[in-house]
Amino acid sequence: MSNLNKAMLIGRLTKDPEMRYTPSGTAVTNFSIATNRWSTGPDGERKEFTDYHNIVAYPIGKRNLAETVAQYTRKGALVFVEGRIQTRSWEGQDGQKRRVTEIIANDVQFLEPRGATAGAGAPARSAAATHDDIPAPDDAPRDVDPDDIPF
Question: What are phi and psi of 44, to 5 degrees?
Fold first, then answer.
């Protein structure tokens, strides 16, 4: 029998993504998104609930997914994230066991044009479709015109 570990989420970033580098120089971007769902409570009234998801993006092959997400998304951006669910455990400095569940992203699609207001619709843009001609963060121009972004 086969196993499947796949998560697909559409939500908005709850804060700006945070990119850092591992000691070996690999980029890692952490961000979180909020998703909404509706349910009927015991009183029969419909209520909206919000769930929060921790997302981690790494470079995948030649795709600079971590750098692309960090460079082109901001708090409030609507994204589609596809990946796998992973749970990590560690012991904190206070001796307490800690545990976190996160989504390791395989793909992130930007569902709004850069600078769009919440709710504006646009064709999906994929960080997976990253081109080799996108400058690395150190080479990136200081003032970027949204129309110059290749996706």
Answer: 85, 0
CATH for 7-129 is: 2.40.50.140
Q: Are 110 and 146 a contacting pair, CB within 8 Å? A: no
pLDDT digits (tens, 9 = 90+) for 29-82: 999 999 999 998 789 899 999 999 999 999 988 889 999 999 999 999 999 999
For the chain, the structural domain boundaries read 7-129
Contacts of the segment 123-129: beta carbons below 8 A, 24+ positions apart: 124/80, 125/151, 126/151, 127/57, 127/63, 127/65, 127/68, 127/69, 127/72, 127/151, 128/60, 128/63, 128/65
Ramachandran area for residue 119 (φ above 0: left; ψ -120 to 50: alpha; else beta): left
User: What pTM was estimated for this model as a whole?
Assistant: 0.71
